Amino acid sequence: MVNTVLLRRAGLKSGEYEEHFAKNPPNASFGSYLKQADAAGVGDAVLTLPLVKKKVDVEKMKFIGKSEQMPHLPWAAKKTISKEDLLKLQDAFLSLNSSEVGRKILANAALSGIDIATDSEYDIIRKLAKEYESYTK
Questions:
Q1: Could you tell me the pTM of the whole model?
Q2: CB 135 within 8 A of CB 7
Q3: Nearest-CA neighbor of 126 among 46, 77, 65, 68?
Q4: For 27-58, what is each residue's pLDDT tens digit?
Q5: DSSP letter assigned to residue 45
Q6: How far apart are CA 105 and CA 111, in angstroms?
């Protein structure tokens, strides 16, 4: 969705390019680097992942467009989870911030920390979704 919005903002129209979806953001960066695609849409943190840096000379990659800063994807739980189990999961995630092992786990995921999100932090996603919808009607 975000990639489509950026392309439309740059003046490209549907049919002027081909869209293909990679299994995950690292694979998208591999496809672009290996010239299987002309460009890939990935978050800037993807190029800092050890998995990506091992296979991609990130110095040879360049950003051709950027969106507004967005929050990381949220963690969610099914509605049937008990409040007690939900709080245990939340505590486990938040505890990653305060231990050496936890900080290593976060670093390997290219994250600096985990915090409790607020709904309003995702307003930018809602705005981009509305803009995307306007292009697909």
A1: 0.74
A2: no
A3: 68
A4: 999 999 999 999 999 988 888 888 899 999 98
A5: G
A6: 9
